[in-house]
Known about the structure:
The protein is built from seven helices and eleven strands. With 238 residues, it is α+β, with helices and mostly antiparallel strands.
Amino acid sequence: MRFLWSTGSHQGRVRDNNEDSVYPTSAGKTEGPLLVAVADGMGGHVGGEIASAIAIEHATVLAGEEATPQERVVAGNEAIMDAVLEDPHLAGMGTTMTLALLEPLGRVTIGHVGDTRAYLLREDELRRLTDDHSVVEMYLAAGRITEDEAKRHPQRGMLTRALGLGRDLEVDVRRERLRAGDRFMLCSDGLSSMVDDDRICELLIDGTPEEAVWTLIDAANLAGGFDNVTLVVVDYLP
Length: 238
C-alpha cells in the first residue's frame, strides 16, 4: 500500500495575511509512514503566523521520529509557551492543530486541538473524525442551538481549547483504520466555515489529491473566502 498526497494554502479573499501552516508543504507519495498536520494561528497579524509555524515545526520536524501524535501536539504547545516567555510581545498568540500519523498497514492516529478538522471519505461517504473545541460545538452538543443557528452564531469562532493557552493541554486522540481507496483530509476552518460537509463530499470525490485540494480552496473563496484556508488530502492506494 502507498500514500499519495497534496497540500495547499490560501489567504482567502478578506485577510491580508495567512496565519495557517501545513505539513508537508508540497505534494508527494510514499510507501512508508506519513505525517501530516494543519494549524490555524490566532493572536494578531504577526502572532498567529508565528504560533502556527512554531507549532508545526516542533510537532513534525523537531519532535523526534518516535513521538506519538499526542506528544507531537504537546511539543508544539510547549514551544509556543517558551516563545512567549522569550518575547512577551507575543503573549496571547496561539493556534489550533490537527495532526495525523498514517501507517502503511492502514492505521491512522490523530492528535487534535481546536477547530481544524480531519475527515475520511470512503465509498463516496464523508465522515468527520474530530470534534471542534468551540463554544458553538458545545452549544450544539447540549442541544441549545440547531445546525442552522450554529452557522450564523456570533460566537462561532470562539475556541474552548487551543495551543498556547497554557502548559496543561488536553489533546484529543483518535485511531482509525484505512481501507484501499480511502481519501483522508485535514483542513482549517477556512474551509469548513465556508463550505458545508455535503458540498465538501461532492468536491472531494473527484480528481487527484492536488485537484481536490484546489477545487475545495476555490469553493471556499467563491463562498466568501472570509478566512485563510488550508488542506491536506491523502489517498490510500494499493
